[in-house]
């Protein structure tokens, strides 16, 4: 990844937006939409402890000068249409509150990000936010029924996956969110599962292989397995050294071999 995607909580916080006109106004709306308080004076924003700044002057020399001052004051800076001057870029946002999907291209093409977001708008149901809210409400009950965090993760993964009780692409999924809606039989059992790869292309993974890799608690891969495949595993899954000398850990373990 060329950038680290993060979601900033700015509700009630000052955010600097410098500039006027067509480039600055969308940034003001974006900040206000996220609950931030727009500040238009550079020194005021610094004094009030702003952490983020958008710079959108028509004069590029002024943009560069303000970006330098703001960065020196410890702020993260976005200079509109100048990705080389940006500490962060703003993605195209798909909003299914509280679900947010951000599509970014590292400043390469805002048009590409927008078109991807528009395609996703057609696919993702409007009820996705309601699904998230109801899943949040059932957390305590889920912990009681599945005290082990690994078991809990596998259960929810199965329920939210394709064909599951709460399939994220099913508009009616939110209406079925209740504790007895889980199909425990659909959960991949804990234990060791071996995947033998015949290709370096992650698109050649079968649906089950991709699901195993994406839900595994630990991954043991031989050195011939490319990063493009390993990146399909959960970011917090344990990476085990090949060959494994000690006993494998509990949970769902995937062994990756390349032939």
What report would you give on this structure?
- The protein is an alpha/beta fold and 259 residues long.
- The chain folds into four domains: 9-88, Rossmann fold (3-Layer(aba) Sandwich), CATH 3.40.50; 91-124, Double Stranded RNA Binding Domain; 128-186, no CATH class; 191-258, Tetrapyrrole methylase, N-terminal domain (Cobalt-precorrin-4 Transmethylase, domain 1).
- The protein contains nine helices and ten strands.
- The protein has helices spanning 24-33, 42-47, 60-72, 110-123, 128-137, 139-145, 149-160, 207-215, 227-230, and strands spanning 14-18, 37-39, 52-55, 76-79, 92-96, 99-103, 191-197, 218-221, 238-240, 252-258.
- The protein has a four-stranded parallel β-sheet with strand order 2-1-3-4, with helices on both faces. A four-stranded parallel β-sheet has the order 7-10-8-9, covered by helices on one side.
- Helix 3 (60-72) links the parallel strand 3 and strand 4 (76-79).
- The radius of gyration is 23 Å and the shape is globular.
- The mean pLDDT is 90.
What is the tally of helical segments?
Answer: 9
Mean pLDDT rating: 90
Mind telling me the CATH superfamily name of the largest domain?
NAD(P)-binding Rossmann-like Domain
Radius of gyration: 23 Å
Count all strands and give the number.
Answer: 10
Distance between the termini: 27 Å
Instruction: Catalogue the unreliable spans.
Output: none
Approximately how much beta-strand content do the residues carry? 15-25%
User: What is the spatial order of strands in the main beta sheet?
Assistant: 2-1-3-4
């Amino acid at each position: 990844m060329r950038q680290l995607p993060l979601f900033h909580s700015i509700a009630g916080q000052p955010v600097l937006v410098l500039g006027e006109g067509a480039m600055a106004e969308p940034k003001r709306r974006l900040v206000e939409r996220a609950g931030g308080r727009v500040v238009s004076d550079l020194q005021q924003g610094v004094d009030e402890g702003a952490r983020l700044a958008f710079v959108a002057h028509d004069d590029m020399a002024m943009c560069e000068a303000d970006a330098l001052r703001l960065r020196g004051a410890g702020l993260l800076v976005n200079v509109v249409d100048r990705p080389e001057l940006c500490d962060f870029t703003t993605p195209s946002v798909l909003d299914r509150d509280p679900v947010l999907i951000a599509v970014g291209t590292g400043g390469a093409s805002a048009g590409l990000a927008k078109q991807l977001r528009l395609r996703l708008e057609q696919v993702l149901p409007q009820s996705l936010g309601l699904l998230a809210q109801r899943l949040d409400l059932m957390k305590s009950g889920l912990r009681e029924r599945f005290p082990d965090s690994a078991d809990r993760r596998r259960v929810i993964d199965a329920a939210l996956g394709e064909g599951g009780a709460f399939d994220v692409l099913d508009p009616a999924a939110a209406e079925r969110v209740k504790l007895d809606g889980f199909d425990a039989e659909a959960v991949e059992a804990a234990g060791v599962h071996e995947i033998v790869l015949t290709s370096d292309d992650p698109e050649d993974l079968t649906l089950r292989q991709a699901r195993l890799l994406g839900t595994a608690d630990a991954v043991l891969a031989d050195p011939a397995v490319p990063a493009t495949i390993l990146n399909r595993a959960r970011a917090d899954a344990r990476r085990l050294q090949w060959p494994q000398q000690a006993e494998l850990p509990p949970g769902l373990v995937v062994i990756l071999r390349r032939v």
